[in-house]
Specification:
Immunoglobulin-like; 7-stranded mixed sheet; 5-stranded mixed sheet; 26 strands; 37% strand; globular
């Protein structure tokens, strides 16, 4: 995202001149050292360093070393309050985004000699990070869909939040799909209300039943929420779960980071789609996109259809963004792989292709699994007209990759490049 035209960044950093020099803005982001504190648009932004406990910090901490907080205020609203031991490098940063936080606060009590000490930690997927060490005070957690706050002795110790977003619309999801299709040289799809109704019904069914893997495309007539319309939509759809902090628009990115689901969204013959979603009580959502609205045989001049496209920037690093696609095209049901490169060619009977598809980073060829029409990644899931490279390791950040493709049967060939995100 980029900043609004009139941007004012105030650094309220009394007695922290060295830290002030380390705070900067870059393309809509506020950073301290290399840590992103905030990303988005703003009219005014303030970054302040304060003492935990305020003017009574010494009294608050007693014999314990005092802590400081980095406070980020965007357009008059406090978005971030991060407790740190000091502003000296290197700073051990707690998580800065709500989606990085597990819904719990860990508390420990340590005794050194006769002195008791409360240790508070925030859990992440990588580690438990300390956010307080000092006298014992009452603590509590407040969590909403857009924020996570830890209260210590009646004051905010730690807060991460994001701006409330307007509820997504079907048009927003279709736009996200069409942006990918247009980028790949394809025509746009149009949402059909009747198809979307079935998608909504199937998404509701998924919130009421524990359907996993490919069974998520089916409905049990004996189960809660079963409808014929929803069952029909499930069989025709691609489906992506999405966490509470994301929207169905962001779930499109997960679908595009796969092999089979990407091909459904980039099918040149698809014209009509249905879109629906629903969330469980715990916030987990399910996006259902009916891609069964095929109209006619695609124009042969569209081929080859490649993705990522030539010159594409900010390409993700991981296959399925670090999750598992069902069915899984990676051998031995592994989940580690790089962002896939796909090439679509006209389908033909008999031999499907005699193709060369290779990925390079500079002069070095990247080790990949190759799926072709004749030797697909899965024999039980054939892909006529599709070639795919899945790197055996995640792609490197901020790296330019080159792709070389040549199919001797069709005479199609293409060389192009893309760059990964930082």
């Amino acid at each position: 995202m980029s900043c609004l035209p009139a941007v004012f960044l105030a650094l309220l950093l009394a007695q922290t001149d060295d830290f002030q020099k380390r705070v900067r803005t870059d393309a809509g982001r506020i950073l301290a050292d290399d840590q992103v504190l905030y990303e988005g648009s703003w009219k005014t932004a303030e970054v302040a360093v304060v003492d935990v406990g305020g003017k009574k910090a010494r009294e608050f901490f007693g014999e314990h070393p005092p802590w400081k907080q980095i406070v980020v205020t965007i357009d008059g609203e406090e978005r971030l309050r991060l407790p740190i031991r000091s502003t000296a490098r290197p700073i051990v940063w707690p998580p800065t985004r709500p989606e990085e936080i597990k819904p719990q606060l860990k508390k420990l009590t340590e005794t050194v000699g006769l002195q008791k000490c409360l240790v508070a930690l925030i859990s992440t997927d990588q580690a438990d990070l300390e956010i307080y060490r000092g006298p014992e005070y009452e603590t509590k957690v407040e969590r909403t869909a857009s924020s996570f706050t830890v209260i210590l002795n009646g004051e905010v110790l730690y807060r991460v939040s994001r701006a409330d977003r307007p509820p997504p619309r079907v048009e927003d999801v279709v736009l996200a799909i069409n942006l990918k299709r247009v980028k790949a040289g394809l025509g746009v799809v149009r949402p059909i209300p009747g198809l979307s109704k079935g998608c909504d019904l199937h998404a509701l069914y998924l919130t009421k039943n524990d359907a996993r893997g490919l069974s998520a495309h089916e409905e049990d007539p004996r189960a809660t929420g079963y409808t014929e319309e929803g069952a029909r939509a499930g069989r025709r759809s691609v489906i992506s779960p999405f966490p509470p902090h994301e929207t169905p628009v962001e779930a499109v990115e997960s679908l595009m980071a796969t092999l089979y689901h990407r091909m459904a969204l980039l099918n040149p013959a698809v014209v009509d789609v249905g879109v629906g979603w629903a969330n469980r009580r715990d916030g987990l959502g399910f996006l259902v996109v009916d891609v069964g609205g095929v109209e006619s045989k695609p124009d042969s001049r569209l081929f080859p259809i490649v993705y990522p496209v030539n010159g594409q920037e900010e390409v993700p690093l991981d296959f399925c963004l670090g999750a598992r696609e069902n069915p899984n095209p990676i051998p031995d049901d592994r989940t580690v792989g790089g962002y896939p490169v796909t090439v679509q060619i006209p389908e033909r009977r008999g031999r499907g292709s005699d193709a060369e598809l290779r990925l390079f980073a500079g002069e070095t060829e990247v080790a990949c699994w190759l799926s072709t029409p004749d030797v697909p990644a899965r024999k039980d899931w054939p892909q006529p007209g599709v070639l795919c490279l899945i790197p055996k390791e995640k792609l490197q950040p901020a790296t330019l990759y080159q792709v070389r493709f040549k199919d001797r049967l069709s005479g199609l060939e293409k060389e192009w490049s893309f760059r990964t995100r930082k």
